[in-house]
Amino acid sequence: MIQINLTIDYDGKLYNTNVITTNDTSDEEILQIAISQIEQQWKE
Questions:
Q1: Which of 9, 23, 30, 39 sits most deeply, having the most CB atoms within 10 A of its CB?
Q2: Is the entire prediction scored with pTM above 0.90?
């Protein structure tokens, strides 16, 4: 398992998020996980 720190531009604002995943996860999958985490955070 690895932790990846990302800064995502979402709705014109920058958000920092962490994704914990395995070494063989593709960059696209990691980006989708990060975006879904940010979306979930702001829906609540």
A1: 30
A2: no
